[in-house]
């Protein structure tokens, strides 16, 4: 497993080199009515660094470019998603082209994942930290 300090350094580097699609979504996520919580970008989780993460809902948002269609990359994405889901996270994916073409639809989908429906009122989301049990 990769050490925590290496994953954090990788996350910092990714945050410094975001794609235009990541910047666009990041700005839009800050405008979502998500009171009481927030999204993190390029957050280390286990052996991975995820694009966007809402700790209160354990929701991960991944943005994929064209290279994610390639067999090798697509298989790594599936393996990564299976691991994250086994750990209790929910992963939703968007293509970069979806961000560019219809950001409103992307934000609606994220809102539905957070609150259950488009009509649901934004309520305070509580961050539920996993407590480590000592043995």
Main traits of this protein?
alpha+beta; 4-stranded mixed sheet; single chain; 5 helices; Endonuclease, Chain A; 135 residues; 4 strands
What does this structure look like?
It is globular and about 40 Å long. The protein has a four-stranded mixed sheet with strand order 1-2-3-4, with helices on both faces. By secondary structure, it is an alpha+beta fold. It has one domain: VSR Endonuclease (Endonuclease, Chain A), CATH 3.40.960.10. The C terminus is likely disordered.
The Rg value, from CA coordinates, equals 15 Å
Q: What is the averaged pLDDT score?
A: 79
- The helix tally amounts to 5
* Counted beta strands: 4
Q: Helices and strands: which structural class? A: alpha+beta
CATH topology: Endonuclease, Chain A
Largest sheet: 4 strands, mixed
- pLDDT below 50 for ≥5 consecutive residues: which ranges? 129-135
CATH C-level: Alpha Beta
Distance between the termini: 22 Å
Main-sheet strand order equals: 1-2-3-4
Instruction: Return the CATH architecture.
Output: 3-Layer(aba) Sandwich
Fraction of residues in β-strands = 15-25%
CATH superfamily: VSR Endonuclease
Indicate how many domains the architecture comprises: 1
Give the topology string: H per helix, E per strand: HHEEEHEHH
